Amino acid sequence: MEDKPELLSDEQLINSIASGDQVAFAELVRRYLSGLVKFSARYTQSLPCSEDVVQESFLRVWKNAGSWREVKGTAKSWLYKIVYNLTMDYLRKQQLERRHREDVMDDEPVDNGLEKNMVESENRQHLHQALLDLPERQRTALTLFLVNGLSGVEVARVLDLNIEASDSLLARARRNLKSKVQEKGQPIYDKSRTD
Amino acid sequence: MINREQIKKMLDCYGADLERWPCTEKRALAKFIENDTKLSEEQADIRLFDQTVRESLESFEPEWSVRAENRLSEKIINLVSKPEDSQPEMSWWHGWFKLVQDYEALRAIPVLPVGIAVLAFVVAIQMGLQNEQPLDNNLYSTAELDAWLIFEGIADDPELSVEPDLYELAVFENEEVEDSLEPEIAFFL
After folding, report:
1. Number of separate helices (H) and strands (E) present in chain A
2. Do B69 and A191 touch (CB under 8 A)?
């Protein structure tokens, strides 16, 4: 590869990966690993499981980089789509296993290690709960847009929607979130904030 | 011409940051909002809302150490360095796309006429091969044998062609050549 990998765009990296360039692959991993693991952990509630999901996703990127075409969306939306789909597969499997276990034995309390580590202020917790109460697709659209920095078009690609449907999903997510918080009579934010 | 309703819709979908709106003419939009007190208030409101939601989502993000990140990163990169994973699966068209990207002259090739010519060539070869005499002891259907007999002039008339009974045909098509086959068939194997 002629250019330094850190100077290349995601799309150029994918094209180099398709030719077997391991340096380009390492650069792509460096760029997205952390964001993808955290994105997946929002659903799995377990970092080790999300690490497995993301590892599998990157192996798929390595094997299928040659089949990526720009018309299918940006490289970033492709990556997030793979991780999102594998995370959903993982959750479906977990749900089946849990149901099976419940048939066999009594419920055991689920150890949610993540939540213990979280800094929780009351308002944030309240807002976060409202976010968790949103339908899964609305929550994903809002998270991808606000936290992971994907554009509207990229959100549409990840969720397999056309752009109009994705726009309407984003708008519905905002509206629902506001009304869920207001239902409980708490202010969403402090209007005196200046930052 | 952009109107108030459209801007409100954009605010609802994409938030207050105009940089993230999928449109050009952002400067004109900013000016439009600036001159409309109600829209400006709504924009400020949505900006605060987005910021709070973002902070909330981020504060509930799992703590993932740099050490864990480095460990996983190293693991993934090592996995693709193994010989069995060292080459990505190449699509058959990927090589062609790469060639076209590298050599501009290839773009001048008229794809459709060349494609038709190649297809015609392949079909012609295929038809030629079908009329060849069988070279080995592969199994042939009666229809193929009939066609070959007529083609070779051994049987001028389709009425004279081989007509084994159905039971023998089944044996003939599924098993090795057996003594019980009719002599006409055995002759051509």
Report:
1. 9, 0
2. no
Q: Do A17 and B73 touch (CB under 8 A)?
A: no
Q: 3-state SS of chain B?
A: CCCHHHHHHHHHHHCCCHHHCCCCCHHHHHHHHHCCHHHHHHHHHHHHHHHHHHHHHHHCCCCCCHHHHHHHHHHHHHHHHCHHHCCCCCCHHHHHHHHHHHCHHHHHCCHHHHHHHHHHHHHHHHHHHHCCCCCCCCCCCHHHHHHHHHHCCCCCCHHHCCCCCHHHHHHHHHCCCCCCCCHHHHHCC
Tell me which chain A residues have a C-beta less than 8 angstroms from the C-beta of B73. 26, 29-30, 33
Query: Do A191 and B48 make contact, defined as CB atoms within 8 angstroms?
Result: yes
Quote the tokens at residue B32. Answer: 């439009």
Best B23, B56, B78, B85 member to test A by mutation, with max A CBs in 10 Å, is B56
Task: Give one DSSP letter per residue of A35-69, joined into a string.
Answer: HHHHHHHHHHS-HHHHHHHHHHHHHHHHHHGGG--
Q: Is the pTM of this model over 0.80?
A: no
Mind listing the pLDDT tens digit for each residue in B136-173?
A: 555 666 677 677 666 666 655 555 545 555 555 555 55
Closest by alpha carbon to B90, among A19, A55, A77? A19
